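batch_manifest entry 22 of 60
target: CCD97-like C-terminal domain-containing protein
source organism: Phyllotreta striolata
requested by: lab member K.T.
priority: normal
notes from requester: please return tokens only, no post-processing; we will run our own comparison against the previous entry in this batch. if the run fails, retry once and flag.
--- input ---
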Amino acid sequence: MTIENCTAANTESVQIPADEERDDMLKYLADKSEICFKSQQIWEADLTNEEKYQIGLDLFESNKLQFLMKFGKYLNTPQLIYFKRIVDAEHNEEMDIIIADLTKKSSETQNTTVKNRRYQAMLQMVNKGLYFSEIEMMKRNPLLYHQLIGQYLTADDIEERDRSANCEYGLVKILMDGIERDNADELKTQHENIERLQMEEESDDDIPNNPPPCSSTSHWGEIGDSRIQQKAFSSKGKKKATKITPEEQKLLKEEFITTMYESFLDGKDEDFEYENVDNDTSYDNIEAMENDEEEKYFNSESDEIKDDAIDDASSEDELDIFMKTLR
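--- output ---
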């Protein structure tokens, strides 16, 4: 007997009306192996999905409160909304309280699940070196790239970057031309704001120590930090790259990469189809699979493999360390 025929064959005397949302919910529950629908002896065969469906249907029709207490924690938000409509119709305050609590927990769980799936997807894309390559990230945020990385690159650095990425000169030139136009508009606005603030300070003798407003979330290269402003602009108003140390250059690059990672995790990459990741359950089992592989690896009796593991751990680069801190 299939699940579709269970409702019709439930009893000969009682005909349960069809309900698509209810049936989808029961099928959803029947597919979950972690749910115990019925206590069984060890020698009894496992319940089929059709049998699970029928048990759930019987309980749903006979006692919705008990059904909710038994299966409610496994329901997703749309299914809880469906239950809320039933509660509103029956005016059951006890079920209303339970559903409100389950909906809150479901929303929190969903948010955590989405974040974890995006994180796992990001790890895969970082390893593949495509979406999070330097050139691709530059294409997604060329102005920030120029502020934190591009303006400090030498001609040799740029040539090496484009050659390693097999990037056409035309694409880079178009991006850089766009950056220069953005920089010109930004510089004009910044200078106007500076002049306005200076005039306000000169005219306001009563509050001589009042500092100009600035953002507490300023990133490297933004006008909010006066020290960076002095390094980034000449007295003539033309933006130029001040020579910085390799350590500073490294920090700026890490700032750019971190910002691009956070942009992806926060769902801000406009051209990325997040629903393909957010709804993909295959990302949920990646960590468990990795743990299984690690157990097999460390249980190996091969001294050579163990030595390689030690070497890999000691040569861990900063990107791997950063990814662990994100986790």
